[in-house]
């Protein structure tokens, strides 16, 4: 039976490379993009027959419903939902200088968007033999690692707290799903040089970042209810 994966925010960066890697493993991959032109461009540059474009703006409930309908016309099950779409709008802004609008903007996409994606696509993921939901997170969202200095020097209240909230929903959904599935877990690729961080030098390439996500997504090991970096489980 064909395996299906949906990766949001996949017209560039880590998501784009995750699509390529999953397609090379014979998944039929839905490449999520909010901008039609950027989505088409990504599809063309990949040039893979088993990748198709699905327009989705995860901050817009109607757009999520349209994406659901489109995917449901192709398949009755979704083996992998990779909630990769995300934004960081507060690089170089101290918490005391952060505008509440920016804080809301980050939560709107990273937290509320991911939440609505999970709720909407759950019926399709539940129909897969071993459905999995993977939420992108960051070690800066681990309160333990941020507090003890293991997550680096950045103090991005907006981005980090929205991803801490994503961790919280990962845990909450995992408790609801229990042993019966689907599996849900969070993964951080670690510092990866992409548009998200203004292409800051010294990070992994998007392909290297994506490999960490895809390895966990395809792993035989069950990581239900955990958050992970490339070395394994990280603390909340
Ligand atoms: N880069 C890192 O060091 C790093 C580290 C840890 C975690 N992460 C996480 O990895 C994920 C991918 O990030 P990246 O580094 O690859 O960033 P990126 O290159 O900026 O890509 C982000 C993607 O998300 C899309 N997106 C943004 N808002 C959206 C919305 N409302 N609806 C749908 N798509 C939306 C963007 O679309 P547009 O092109 O239209 O803007 C783009 O395709 C994010 O969740 C990020 O938090 C990244």
Give an account of the 3D structure.
- The protein has a single domain (4-234), classed as Rossmann fold.
- Helix 1 packs across helix 7, helix 3 (61-72) runs parallel beside helix 4 and helix 4 (100-126) packs parallel to helix 6 (157-177).
- It is 42% helix and 15% strand.
- It has helices at residues 13-24, 36-46, 61-72, 100-126, 143-147, 157-177, 206-217; strands at 4-7, 28-33, 51-55, 80-83, 132-136, 183-187, 227-229, 232-234.
- It has an eight-stranded mixed β-sheet with strand order 3-2-1-4-5-6-7-8, sandwiched between helices.
- With 236 residues, the protein is α/β, with parallel strands linked by helices.
- The chain has seven helices and eight strands; from the N terminus they run βαβαβαβαβααβαββ.
- It binds NADP nicotinamide-adenine-dinucleotide phosphate.
- NADP nicotinamide-adenine-dinucleotide phosphate binds next to helix 1 and helix 4.
- One of its GO terms (cellular component) is cytoplasm.
- Belongs to the short-chain dehydrogenases/reductases (SDR) family.
- This is NAD(P)-dependent dehydrogenase (Short-subunit alcohol dehydrogenase family).
- GO terms for molecular function: oxidoreductase activity.
